[in-house]
Amino acid sequence: MGEVTVLEEAGRATYRGKYLENRKIFSESVRIIFDFNFLLEEFRPHTQALAPSAMPPNQDTPLSWKKILTNFCEILFLIGFVQLFTTLFGAANAVSAISTATALLLCTKLNLGVKNWQAPLLIVFLFLVIPVGSHYSLIHPAAGIFINFSAIFLLVMGTCQEYNSKIYLPFVVCYIFSQGTPVEGKAFTYRVIGMAAGGILVAIVYLLCHLKRNSFPGIWALCCKTHLSSEQIKFAFRLAFALSMGMLIGDLMDFPRTAWIGMTVNTLILPVQEDMRKRLIPRVGANFIGCAVFFLVFQILLPEHLFTIGLFLTSFFYMFARRYLWQQVFVAINAMVGGLVFFENSAPMTMRMRLMAVFIGVGVVLVTYVVSRYLQPFDRMDAWLQKRKQAPSSQTAKTTKQDRRDLAA
């Protein structure tokens, strides 16, 4: 009996030792999880940029385990890349991290439509335009209109050689959020360095993924071939005009989340102008539905310490939504969860500001549609230039006829 008791005590000690060891491992893992969530809280306000620009182009593929795994891996890649990037360049540059990561995902599947050796240089240049343009546009509202318009026009023209391509999205989204979340001093220096590093990384990955594609023309040849009435220039003008107007209104109103106005404009101004009318009503309706779901889930059911996990889940589910209405429902929820910190964690104020931003953005889009559709500035300008080109030849013909008459006399 004594030997059995000793063996039992030894077994209990061994079991208790394993229990204490496992509890220590569990405690450490929980501490790591909470530390990770704490780090995510630092850039939670910027994570709306995840959903619109991370949208994979194979959205119409049927639901399968492969698609679930692919989308899950993309979300994990985005989270991991943002963590690494913000560790190196600061949490204020989370927008740069998200846009760089989504550009990496898109550049593996899409192309810029220019020569391979020129595309990396173009990418790095455009990545530097984003922090510099968005920073100096805030010096004065009058200067901001010109700088914002020029920078966005350049971003779209540089990335939309392949018409209807989504590769312009990360660049424009990054500009919208950079302009809406300005930084100064050392943080601005880190933003420029971070964007330069991100541009170099995207350029290298793009070059490796498109080594065998050499049939694209050079940048200068494309510029010479593009005319004022081309669809590419019209789209770049519409988007640059609407975004610069939305940013001006947000700055003059001192709107807390100017980026919300810009994101509304960005999703409604499309390469095919008539598609705007199909998205207008669903965009507004989706935000009302998003407000209701946001209040129910994130203010009644879900505790605050799980907000960040819920936020990333909305980005994950967004990648499976096929209809534009449900895509924008997830985007609206995502934006309001991230925007709580700007409105003193007041859900009613957040929802009111969200709806106000959407209505302002819709108003700007409608004005842009009227200007582009009925005034047709680029068509008129192109027609005027064509007349100017033909005028000297007709004048020369008249002079020659008069000289002949003089000689005959």
What would you say this structure looks like, in words?
The structure is a single chain. The chain is an all-alpha fold. The chain is built from 16 helices and no strands. The protein has helices spanning 2-42, 50-53, 65-89, 94-107, 119-136, 141-159, 169-180, 186-209, 219-225, 231-252, 258-268, 275-301, 307-318, 324-339, 347-375, 377-408. Helix 4 (94-107) packs parallel to helix 8 (186-209) and helix 13 (307-318) runs antiparallel to helix 14 (324-339). The longest helix has 41 residues, at 2-42. The chain is globular. Residues 22-41 have low confidence and may be disordered.
Helix and strand arrangement:
Blueprint: H1 2-42, H2 50-53, H3 65-89, H4 94-107, H5 119-136, H6 141-159, H7 169-180, H8 186-209, H9 219-225, H10 231-252, H11 258-268, H12 275-301, H13 307-318, H14 324-339, H15 347-375, H16 377-408
Helix pairs in contact: 3-4, 4-7, 4-8, 5-6, 5-7, 5-8, 6-10, 7-11, 10-11, 10-15, 11-15, 12-14, 12-15, 13-14, 14-15
Features:
mainly alpha; globular
Measured by DSSP, the beta-strand proportion falls in under 5%
Number of strands: 0
Low-confidence stretches: 22-41
Structural class: mainly alpha
Helical coverage, percent range: over 70%
Radius of gyration: 27 Å
Please tell me the overall pLDDT: 77
Quick description:
Helices cover 77% and strands 0% of the residues.
